[in-house]
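Handout, page 2. Input:
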Amino acid sequence: MHTIKKIALVAICLMLALASSLMFVGCGKDNKIRLNEVTHSIFYAPLYVAINMGFFEDEGLEVTLESATGSDASMTALVSGSADIALIGPEQVVYTEDIKDRPVIFGQLTQTDGSFFVGRDDTADFNLDMLKGKTIIGGRQGGLPAMTLEYIIEEAGLTIGTGEGEVNLRTDVAFPMIASEFITSGSEFCTLFEPNATNLEKAGNGYVLQAVATYSGQLPYTCFTAKTSFLEQNSDKAESFLKAVKRGYQYLKEQSYENSAKALQASFSGMTIEELAIAVKEYLAINAWDDDMILSQQSFNRLIDVLNNASDEDYSPSYNNLVNNTFATNIA
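Output:
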């Protein structure tokens, strides 16, 4: 299944790359950057602070933001030329390593899993053994949230399956539909990012139990990615972009939770200051954001372990081909 997914994605990317190469693109002619994010989540708070506080404008950039419905959709937008930068799961660059003008990671935003276990009951002492004989919704097959969940379940010595004492890990639910499927399906657990986790608890449909990062450790979860040609022709813009996002992180780290929440509110109008402050506190507590934005080879290798654990392939991509830390190093 993972092989089919990879082949399909590479085929689409090759066609889109060919089409985009036939069109005139004025790279480096202005200060505009079209950014596509995999989804809209407080997990990416430094980015939204940079937008709302004018940090991109301070760097002379005009950033427009569009949300997708998954990393594969964001990668398609990037390769087709409808986005200059994509904030996506780094597994996508592994799948597209062989295409011409390949996408490259040039900055790491989040360095661990940002989802939370959500359950039917308010369990203060949650642990993975509680998943035995239960059903947990982990997202779509091939997505990094589902693959990470599979990895930590099996690392804990548990068996995934539908037999007695096994963990029934559902990977048939699209990322945006996890919360609604949890409410209606009768599944005992699911994993959700903020603000979805807090909103679900607020509505009385479950309880936020524990961060998945408790078990997954450091993992390059979402990174800023651009095509090789864009980085070659717009190195100043790429570096300025990371500077602004890094200022967003420093703001969250140094300000009060309330001030951070106020800086985020324009991006999350459906949440209160109190709810936003709680989310910021939770993400700071698990050290979710990478302070230097440099993706290390050790962290990259852990990602490959997660991919290979969930796949019928043996991925062995070149770190040097897929990661360019030049811009993050320059601003460190």
